[in-house]
Design a protein that fits this description.
single chain, 143 residues, mainly beta, 2,3-Dihydroxybiphenyl 1,2-Dioxygenase, domain 1
Length: 143
């Protein structure tokens, strides 16, 4: 397995709960883990993510700043998935609410637009995940 140039590592309050959320509901696989450190390296397609339980392994904290939920304020992680529908079904079945409901959103990129079918969900610690499937490209709509 080759590691991406950028791999977020999320400090989590309960490693097993987070691992179950990411694997059972979102669809990540465990590439490897160190249970004694509360650590897992997760993959979903080309996406890679690390989770690390606070207080067991190494936790990167800012001195004198409380580490409290929701974690990751101001950041959402965009993750490309083959299809959002199966993930939405698993989340609904588990009673997990969405932060932003399913939408189709087009973003301008130079002289064209790229489309996402996407939604946002918070993980057990409040990290926001924007899961999306690619809708392709289209010309920029002119008024």
């Amino acid at each position: 397995m080759r590691t991406n140039a950028l791999v977020p590592e999320l400090a989590v309050s309960d490693w097993r709960t987070s691992r179950a959320f990411y694997c059972d509901l979102v669809g990540f696989d465990v590439a490897y883990e160190r249970p004694d450190e509360g650590f897992s390296f997760l993959t979903l397609g080309a996406a890679q993510l690390m989770i690390d339980q606070i207080g067991i392994g190494r936790t990167f904290e800012v001195k004198d700043v409380p580490l409290e939920r929701p974690f990751g304020r101001g950041v959402n992680l965009q993750i490309l998935v083959p299809q959002v529908a199966p993930i939405l079904a698993r989340l609904e079945s588990a009673g997990v609410p969405l932060y932003l409901p399913l939408e189709e959103k087009w973003y301008r990129r130079d002289d064209h637009e790229v489309g996402n079918r996407q939604f946002v969900v918070a993980d057990p610690d409040g990290y926001l995940l924007r899961l999306f499937e690619d809708l392709g490209e289209r010309p920029v709509a002119r008024p």
